[in-house]
Design brief:
Distance between the termini: 165 Å
Order of helices and strands: EEHHHHHHEE
Low-confidence stretches: none
Structural class: alpha+beta
Helix content: 10-25%
Mean pLDDT: 77
Number of strands: 4
Strand content: 5-15%
Length: about 210
Amino acid sequence: MANVTIHQLPALAIQATDQLEIQRTGGGASGKITVEQILDLVPDGTVAWGQIQGTLANQSDLQAALNAKAPSSAVNTATWGQIGGTLSNQADLQTALNAKAPSSAVSTATWGQINGTLVDQTDLKAVLDAKAPTSAINTAAWGNISGTLSNQTDLQNALNAKSNVADVYTKAEVDNAIAAAVAGYLPLTGGAITGALSVTGNISSNANILAFQP
């Protein structure tokens, strides 16, 4: 067989232990090498970013993808009031706007001018249903209050702090009791002392005043 380079060899089913006789280009030393030794010389194909060598343009699929991208300097940061083009082309936004009512169709509800049926406003209806009708509200009047007084604890406590009428004397009763108590003693004016008078201390008189000094 004539000398050929490896890439000129026909496709063959070979084993890792098969040997090839090789010779340096231009003549020189020759030798044998196994298929396994040849495979060991081939990189394992694990490439990390930053370690890729060669020319990017040779990776035609990646170069084509990059060619389809706009440079960052050509990217427009949209700002409200500066967006060009046609709104309807932004289909998702146009659809959302189409679902809105125009401002002219929006009613500003005012009490006394709200139309429709109250039961349709379920949250308000639920609040109202939890209230008692005015006809069921008892307006308490003295003489018409039912139930047990002790249940109104604040009023019961206030009453407990008061004295019973039977335990309280009026001013007239107090005055009469004092008058009756002193009626049997020497009058303050015009009285006469009868019997023996025992005095501890000094008695002095000044005109019509009799004073006792203990």
